[in-house]
Structure formats: structure tokens, C-alpha cells
From TrEMBL:
Keyword Transmembrane assigned: yes
Protein name per its UniProtKB record: VanZ family protein
Transmembrane domains' residue ranges: 6-29, 49-69, 89-111, 118-138, 150-168
Domain VanZ-like: 70-165
Amino acid sequence: MGWSSATAAVDAVVVLWPVWAAALAVLVWMRGRGHGRWGRAALDSAADVLAVCALLGIAAVTLFTPGSVKAVELAPLRDIAATGLGVTGLVQSGGNAALFVPLGAVLPLALGRRLARWVRVLAAAAAVSAVVETLQYLVADGHVASVDDVLLNSAGALLGAGLARPLWRGGRPRIQEGAAPGGCGPRGPGRRVSRGAGPR
């Protein structure tokens, strides 16, 4: 991942800001008109738009920049060991991890917060990275499809989710076991409570 490709991705996001603004306005209107909670609609819609921006940035950096070698590396940690702990290796490994930090930060907040779990963020990031590596090998010029990239991308996504943890911690309401809807107390009407049955 070079500075030129990263700069091109940032430029694309900035140039297309009217498109992002229009998409955000449409999403807020569609979500807010039903329940009237415009603040929550705005936050959820902003997370969705930012997630799309992060995905497009990843695509711009990985798929539209030429490389020098086309190969497949399926042995875990071999690429990381080959690049070593020098400046070049740290920049390359750190860049692969940093590429997915923004995506990991917004994934728990996007899609109605359906991915607001560590394992779901990890699974989604690994799936996106695997798709990117496959497309790199099939359609991009001179790129190495490596399992190490998937590992580093996934680690970066978890780092991003950790940095954004205060925003999505407890974001999805959970119904406590034994609580009845409508504020009827811990035992709702008609609810049978078993006494004497131990935990299973």
C-alpha cells in the first residue's frame, strides 16, 4: 500500500462528498419518518455511509493500484516473517492492519448495529479481506494474495472496533431474562416461573 494509492482514495472520498451527503439525507429521512427518532436515524445512517466509504477506500487502495508480483501465499505468517521487523516490514504490515481500522470502527454501528459483537466484526472483516485478496489475484495486476493480509486486516478491524467501543457498547437494547414487555415487572402476565430448577 503506497502513499499515492492512499492519497487517491482520500481524494475520491473528498471529491464525492455531495454523493455521501445526499445518501445520508435519504437514509435519515427513510429511517426517521417512521418513528420520529431523528437523532438515532442520523447516527445509524452516518455509520452506514461511513462503512461504504471505508469499503470503497479499501477497494481503491487494493484493487486499482498496480503491483509487481502476482502470486498466492496460503502459509500463515510466512509473508510477515519474510518482510521482517525492519522499517519496510513494519510499514507493510502496519499498513495492512491500518487499512481496516476505519471499517472496524464503523461496522459495529452500521446495519442497525447488527454487527455489534466482537466475533461478528472479526467475521465480517475476514470475509471482506478474503474477497479483496481473491479479487486482487483474479483482476488486479501484480498483487500477492496472502493469508497474512487477511490476518492483518482482521487485526486492524478489531483494533478499530476497540477504539470505537465506547460508542457501540450496549448500543443494542437487550431484553433481560424474566422481564416482560410493557413494563409489567419481572414476571409478565401469564408467565410461569419454574422454582427449584437449577441452571442448565
